[in-house]
Amino acid sequence: MKKKWWHDKIAYQIYPKSFLDTNGDGIGDLRGIISKLDYLKELGIDIIWLSPIYQSPFVDQGYDISDYYKIAREFGTMEEFDELLEETKKRGMYVLMDLVVNHCSDRHEWFQKALADPYGKYAEYFHFVKGKDGKEPSNYRSYFGGSAWEPVPGTDLYYLHMFAKEQPDLNWENPELREEIYKMINWWLDKGLAGFRIDAIINIKKDLDFPSFEPDGPDGLVSCVKMVEEVEGVGEYFEDIKRSTFEKYDAFTVAEVFNMKEDELSEFIGDNGHFSTMFDFSAHTLLQGEKGWYNARKLSFKEWRDTIFDAQKKAQGKGFLSNIIENHDEPRGASRFLPEHAQNEAGKKMLATTSLLLRGIPFIYQGQEIGMTNCRRNDISEYDDISTKDQYQEALRAGCSTIQALEICYENSRDNGRTPMQWDGGKGAGFTESAPWLALNPNYTEINVAEQESRPDSVLSYYKALTALKKSDEYKETFTYGEFVPAYEDKDGIFAYHRIWEDGTDRRRQDILVAANYGTEPCTLELGAPDSERTGIKALLSNTGREKEREEQAASTGCITLESCEAVVLCI
Ligand code: GLC
Ligand code: CA
Q1: Which of 271, 351, 384, 408 lies at a C-alpha separation of 20 to 30 Å from 334?
Q2: Rounded to an integer, what distance in angstroms lies between the CA atom of residue 33 and that of residue 24?
Q3: Residue nearest to atom 12 of ligand 1 (CA)
């Protein structure tokens, strides 16, 4: 595998609207981000991914872009953005923007011109398609509910929107559109961006016949993802984008890819893959209900662990995955993946340990480092997210009561990850001095940065220790390139793996065991006889401060006992 500049990096996702408000309008802004760069540096962050900050009507919170060359005025100015780039460079950090090019906003100039002249040049930038028998061209349901087709006023045409109707899909078949997009990407890269997180990109290839499929719901519609799954040839677009843009800049790209076809991993993230890396959503995907959030599955510990292990094994020798616990589209990982008895600081540290030391690029989502949790709301009107509103209605239609539907939103809503960052325990959580755009999670009085900074045994302090260990000169090579080898898979509640690195030239070998007990009972693991060439077992980190104790136990008995919610990292 060719070494790349980003292989050993740790990334952090900022959701700008909820990060830090510095001008008192209740909305996070670029100034806020600039003022927290030292905080991020101290946390061990190298790469910062900003969710969209472009001009937008915010129907889908910035994932509906009305001008790709402008910064949303809510967030600040281009000068401030340049300053942000400058300040990150000074600190040896990198910035990724979000690249949202499957669709734009219906307020974008292209779409406005297309509506004004539905048979003209700009209509070709979108999918304007003649209806069939006075109805939609096909029976697709958009990802956010309802038909994926919207009438073009004054015509018998419809335009395609796989997400909200305010997010018309762009026509990638049109070379002129592709050129416009490449020009824009290169313009940002010329500014000094390190790369992009690439939104919903698997959707850009359409079957231009737009065939209808067997309905998958009582509404007579079928999820538009069906068309994406059936159509071939998206890879050609990806290669074209790469050659025309990213490759020239040695840019880092991380793709949001669901529904990749089997065995395409090397094509996507291999040495010469379409992208540098892509997110591992395997565990998150398993939790998606077939019909919607209301029939989301419960995941057993074993299924969750095995899914992650499978993804790790598949990527090994092919490329690097990007590992996440949560993001702006997912509920908080601490609420979702930790069993009830582990929903505490020890549990949150344990989850961090087993996730951050996997093979791949860790992406920490804002607030994860202090263990922010899901947030309960009393009424659907308290939610902002477009998808939550749709899923709530879906649940009601399926026969859930309002109380049940709210519970479903509590467990699944994208707003769980979007509540403002909890900086301190004062009014406004240190996020804002006025009313926040989205209500705070009331637990900010207990869970916040200020409190955790003052405490060496906090979740935040532990994240710092964890990132420092991953990047330490002594172990970096192993954590970056070391093989992933699952361990103790037959032990109930145990999440354990080795990272093993061998340097062929001087026969140096490092074997690091990451082991955690997600169960309720203590569990003893036999470490096996120490290798004669090894100098002994060293505990590199423990989430419960038991480094010494575990080292001594290992030395005298060849075993370690993990208490419930205990995680340990051993060099063996
Ligand atoms: C991606 C984004 C999500 C957005 C959607 C449409 O999935 O992460 O937030 O709603 O694309 O752009
Ligand atoms: Ca603001």
Answers
A1: 384
A2: 15
A3: 63
